[in-house]
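look at this fold:
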Amino acid sequence: MLLLISSLQTASLMAQNGYNITFSSTGMHELKYYLGQHFRDTFIVIDSATPSKNTVIFKSNKSTPKGVYTLLDGKKAKLFDFMIDDSRTFSINFDENKTNQGMKVTGSKANSLMFSYLAKIEWANEQGKAINEKKKDPTKKADVDKEMDQLSKTMKDFEETYFKDNAQYLFTKLVKMSSRIDVPEQIPAGSSDTNLRDWQARYFRTHYWDNVNLKDHSLIYTPQLFDKMNYYFFGVLYHQDADTITRYAHNVLDKIVDDSTMLRYFLDFITPRYERSTRNIGWDQVFVNLTNDYYLAGKCPWATQADLFSKRETVRFLSQSLIGAYGQELLMADTNQSTDPNDWISSHALPQKYVMLWFWDPDCNHCKKQTAELIVLYDSLVAAKNKIFEVYAVGYESDVEKWKGYVRKHKLPFINVGGPNVNIDYQEAYNVHGAPTMILLNADRQIIMNKTISTAYVLPFIEQYEKLHPEQANRPPSKWQLEGIKRAKIK
């Protein structure tokens, strides 16, 4: 009796949490097969089994969430995806080519419907290609248009019926997630907006998640949610400024802030990319904003005290060099390496409106290449008597003699400073992780660019900056410029 109860309990647990999945095919030639669970942009191998007589069976009593899973071959390469959804005990027989038409499912309507849907889409694509081939004959245009209209109607009716009858299945939700957002063709009456394109872009950004149920945990174990998330933050929002990205991020994250599992799924992926980006200006501000608003605001219960300490320090470190922050004045010795602070050169008290802090290393090939390009640009501005910016070049090299030798050999025309004689730790002050690092300061010595960009883009960047900040274009000299002019005259 106890044995029977134990067996029933095991069967009940299997039905609720585990799985018993059989795959069979005449094309099973591997010595071992694996089961993969989708997570973000990859899959995690959760099980393995050895085939027998063209059949392999995966069994487990472990808690296994709903989601998209994949059958992997002996080299852990993907064969095809399937669902754990309505059933946890089912079988799939597949042909050697693993075609959707050849999938025979027993015990899982969700999988049967999925493969049938995919097979229908493939059929429609083939029909469409065949119809388009007929367009080569201009006498058949009317027939072609009629056939294409009929095919479109057939597929529209098929999808409407499919969505109506099978809304409860995970695959249906995934297809809905992938459906396009219908953006209105006109600005609604009464709106203060006048630019249709900008309004449509904002509409798309705002309604991007309309077809996604972010309360559904099973979406975490699907490639579709990852693709949706990745494209939104690093595609749709790619060219937006930090404040705009932060605002739209809040619109999404605030909907799931009470669901720590889903919140972690998003934050653990997006925040490191905003922190580590070396090319996108302002993305470090997004990292600081989201870290402050979620991790350091106590909204991430999974974060340990060590995690929070590390993030707090990173925020403190980054905050000193964010766009809009006032850059800290550097006082450093030039190639004469004077130990008298009165001889040190200021990064701020310079007569030019803009100052480029250029942290470089003579042993760095990329540094040497871009420094040579910078010399060409610098000399051209000097020759045109239009040196709009000064280069304050900091030798990022502990071997002072090597740095000095390179400066003299290549006749670097900039303000060249380096060595141990400096007033502050410039690595911390400007978040300098390595060379080259480029920082651009405006007339007030605020940071307006904190990423290394190609030399060819420096002047266009300044031009664009002044278009966005017209008050900077024809402004009178700042106190830093005036002090720099005064010192220049004294010299």
